[in-house]
Amino acid sequence: MHDLGFTYLNGPDIDGLGLSDDDILAAVERGLVAQGRGETVIEPRVHLEPDPAFNGHFNVLRGYIAPMNLAGVKIVGDYVDNYKMGLPSEMALLNLFDPRTGMPVALLDATAITEMRTGALTALGAKYLGPKTARVLGHVGARGTAYWNVRLLDRLYDFDEIRVHSRRPDSRQGFADRLSRDLGKPVRAVDSWQACLEGADVMVEASRLTQPEPLFRTEWVKPGAFVVPYGTMSAVELSLTDVMDKIVVDDWGQCKGGKLGSLRAHVESGKLSEANLHAELCQIAVGEKPGRERANETTLFWHRGLSLSDIALGHAMLEKARASGVGQSLQYA
């Protein structure tokens, strides 16, 4: 029996790699392009809810990217009350495998990967569907993925005004302060959904609701806006899709099924179906479908989160770690 091992990258290892914003965006876009070219396999995510009393669940995401020669499985916990214990709401592990043999290749702390790849997908949605020039961003939600939404969108647009809101005043102010420091510009915490979103060029809803509640009003969406609702529980009105010229998702297979997701009621009521879905984002990335075509086009991008984004970003981190001598080699057999 040969000595078999795999690479382990923990949280400090990943922090130390120092991937730039452009590195993160490029890695996730490579996954999108592979998806658009039919070089991937995506299995719809599944959920494990150990006990409703725990107010949380696990998401299990699975996929394969042929050009990267990797299959991957990510398990991420999503626990709303973790802040009370000083823990992130989402903690994750990404397992990467050789798709030809099943041999483990790497195990990565995927908490930061989850946050970064979510923000990257939001920003790539804006690249293809958002206004050419956007001056105002309204962002609801302050969990880990929210930071990378704002940071990577600002990388794309360099906004004149950024407004943020979340349910807890201490959370939203701390979020605004962190962004102001890291982006080198004022970020304003506001005390209501309306003050945050109304009239913004780019509107992102990443809330942490415990049950569906229509807090995002359709009337706040101006013509030409780009809207990204992706909370686990729906925070939008059924009428939201009525004002959209184009609706795009990351993967229709996982968007059309399951009980969670911001547009679940729209799918179940027939307001969103294959008949009126414009495209998956990967189809736009490879030129199969058009992205934004007019300045006054109002567009919506709903992403549930792709296993492919995790695998692509994990691959980029693993490559940089190998080149830098970062990480631990663990014995497998």
TrEMBL record:
Matches recorded under Pfam families: OCD_Mu_crystall
Organism from which the protein derives: Ferruginivarius sediminum
Protein name per UniProt: Ornithine cyclodeaminase family protein
GO cellular component: cytoplasm
InterPro entries cross-referenced by the UniProt entry: NAD(P)-bd_dom_sf (IPR036291), ODC_Mu_crystall (IPR003462), ODC_N (IPR023401)
